[in-house]
Amino acid sequence: MKTLLLSCLFCFAPIALKAQPLERRCGWLSNPTPANWFLADRSGDWTISVQGGFEAQGMDKINLQNERDYVRTNGSYGYACACLDVVTKRSGQSWRITKIHGFKQLLLKQCLEDPALRRAPVCAY
After folding, report:
1. Quick one: pLDDT at residue 121?
2. Which domains does the chain have, with CATH numbers?
3. In angstroms, rounded to a whole number, what is the distance separating the alpha carbons of residues 29 and 99?
């Protein structure tokens, strides 16, 4: 029994090591132009998607439904306050959200009143 337990432990250990931690990141979610998405939170600026290039898995989870808490800055493009449950990757100055597991739009007031966040975005990054 002990040998079987140890065998199972070694079989599943590589899977457990590959699991990436899920982070909750909250701040200004910006979509200034087509397919360009960014999140500015307390830590800094995160790239979620770049037109013609990188795109995080799970983009379909972003669902901005509350029009009162969405600011249009460029036609239908703009920004909102949101929390995302994500997997991230940091490499030097490049910070990316690589996978989105969950999304919740917040009231604009929550980001506006958070002293740890910069002011709301007004244009493309």
Report:
1. 80
2. 21-112 (2.40.50)
3. 15
DSSP, residue by residue, the chain: -HHHHHHHHHHHHHHHHHPPPPEEEEEEEEEEETTEEEEEESS-EEEEE-TTS-B-BTGGG-----GGGEEEEETTEEEEEEEEEEEEEEETTEEEEEEEEEEEEE-HHHHHT-TTSPPPP-S--
* Residue 72, CA distances (Å) to 101, 110, 123, 125 in order: 25, 18, 10, 15
State pLDDT tens for residues 45-100.
999 999 999 999 999 999 998 999 999 999 999 999 999 999 999 988 889 999 99
- In order of 36, 52, 99, 122, the CA distances from 56 in angstroms are 11, 13, 5, 23
